[in-house]
Design goal:
The chain is an alpha/beta fold. It is built from 16 helices and 11 strands. Strand 8, helix 15 and strand 9 form a beta-alpha-beta unit. The chain binds D-gluconic acid.
């Protein structure tokens, strides 16, 4: 989600009550999550775990450049080694299998699989072929994201997502990769969180490539969505049996008071975080309120673009983390009003499972053609430590239990939700926050690369085992 430094606070999570320790995790008997066709998996992304940035012909990405720029990433961390997954992938697949996880969401690094002319890089492609073949052999469903933010630097040098041509280069890349990997992927997602790429990358500069201009953000978003829309028919043609979709991060905005102005502010917050992406995808138009919020930022849209962007989807991936409480900031805007005394994570993000439920139910009402949903990311960061060989991440266990319950409630209210991926399988490079923030259900000791299964992972594994035993 938004690794926006401005959302970080010093608040500490409160102690967790004892009854949680007694029955830490298992969903209640009537939960829809007991259905064995509800897919439960974990997610990662290439730049956050792979390392090996200079190996086997991988080209530099915008995140290599950004993280090498002093002051951009906490403690000067980079993804150069990360979890060394490029070399340890076999052990990591064994780990997934040992936990009984049924699905794995990963991303392909564009700069690893193509050369500067867009031609295939065999060694990079072979890495993903080996990995996907092994996952298939283990019976794990594969959800592959084509773009989880690691744009080849040579494309950024030509304007990146501000250059319309990048959308066409993305479609070429989608063509190449889906020909190569056809039959090995259960579901393709074109983009991960275009909101972050456009807004944090080009609007406020907190992410690579680090540009900050409101007009850049809306134009970059348009080209990202166009890239998505161009890629969908290509994926359909090359790999007809798989599902095709996109992954969007969503944010809950609540009004600080009941005043009309604050309620309007909360509405505008959700327009900026959700409708900006979902309206073009599902209605074929940008929300006009967005340009009320950001006057003069209308992107250049060519004839036929909106139709391309609104290509039918087989699924929509939803990433949810927290809510933001807002008040009116004058005629057009909103400002954050952080709530006191609420539970927060290591990111400073409020733990607010109801937001997930309410947004899903709201989307189901707003969009007549809402596709089936997968929760493609949900999870939390905590300052986890290995003590006597164990990691007791009690807050995460409670977090997961409550978000499972939110998903269950949304399903019972009629939303078609087919699965849930934990963010993340393992601690990893958390973008502008480097390695300090730990989102994994598996702990990584970065000095030894030792993996330690956290208690949350044990709880998930136990639930999956019990669920399997019911068949
Ligand atoms: C994102 C990404 C993940 C993050 C996670 C926690 O949304 O930022 O998909 O790469 O690590 O969301 O911030």
């Amino acid at each position: 989600m938004a690794n926006d430094a401005s959302t970080v606070s010093d608040a500490r999570p409160p102690a967790v009550s004892n009854d949680l320790l007694a029955d830490p995790f298992t969903p209640p008997a009537d939960s829809t999550l007991w259905r064995t066709n509800f897919l439960l998996g974990a997610a990662t992304a290439s730049y956050q775990i792979e390392g090996a940035v200079n190996e086997d012909g991988r080209l530099p990405s915008i995140w290599d450049t950004f993280s090498a720029t002093p002051g951009k990433v906490l403690a000067g961390d980079t993804g150069a080694v990360a979890c060394d997954h490029y070399h340890r992938w076999e052990a990591d697949v064994d780990l997934l299998t040992s936990l009984g996880l049924e699905g794995y969401r990963l991303s392909v690094a564009w700069p690893r699989v193509t050369d500067a002319a867009g031609k295939p890089n065999r060694k990079g492609l072979d890495f993903y072929k080996r990995l996907l073949a092994r996952l298939k052999e283990k019976g794990i469903q594969t959800f592959v994201t084509l773009y989880h933010w690691d744009l080849p630097q040579h494309l950024e040098d030509r304007g990146g997502w501000l250059n319309r041509d990048t959308a066409y280069r993305f479609a070429d890349y989608a063509d190449l990769i889906s020909r190569e990997l056809a039959g090995m992927v259960d579901a393709w997602a074109t983009l991960n969180e275009p909101w972050c790429s456009a807004y944090l990358g080009y609007g406020n500069g907190h992410h690579a490539p680090g540009l900050a201009d409101g007009r850049f953000a809306t134009q970059a978003m348009h080209h990202l969505l166009l890239a998505h829309g161009l890629a969908i028919p290509v994926l359909r043609a090359n790999d007809p049996a798989s599902q095709k979709g996109i992954v969007a991060n969503i944010g809950r905005g609540t009004a600080d008071s009941d005043s009309a102005a604050d309620r309007r502010a909360a509405h505008l917050f959700e327009v900026q975080h959700n409708a900006w992406i979902l309206d073009p995808l599902l209605k074929g138009e940008y929300p006009q309120d967005l340009f009320e919020l950001w006057p003069g930022t209308e992107p250049l849209v060519l004839d036929g673009d909106m139709q391309t962007i609104a290509a039918p989807l087989d699924f929509l991936g939803i990433n949810y983390y927290f809510r933001t409480n807002v008040a009116s900031d004058g005629a057009r805007g909103f400002r954050d009003v952080p709530l006191e005394g609420v539970e927060r994570t290591q990111m400073g993000w409020e733990v607010y499972p109801d937001g997930l439920r309410d947004l899903l139910i709201g989307f189901n009402r707003t969009y007549a053609n809402l596709p089936p949903i997968y929760i493609t990311e949900n999870g939390m960061a905590s300052d986890d430590k290995v003590v006597d060989g164990r990691v007791d991440d009690t807050q995460r266990i409670s977090f997961l239990k409550r978000h499972f319950s939110a998903v269950d409630q949304a399903i019972k209210a009629g939303v078609d939700i087919r699965g849930y991926f934990l963010w993340s399988l393992m601690d990893n490079f958390e973008w502008a926050f480097g390695y300090e923030r730990r989102f994994g259900i598996v702990h990584i000791d970065y000095s030894t690369q030792k993996r330690t299964v956290k208690r949350s992972a044990e709880c998930v594994a136990k639930f999956l085992k019990e669920r399997q035993a019911r068949i």
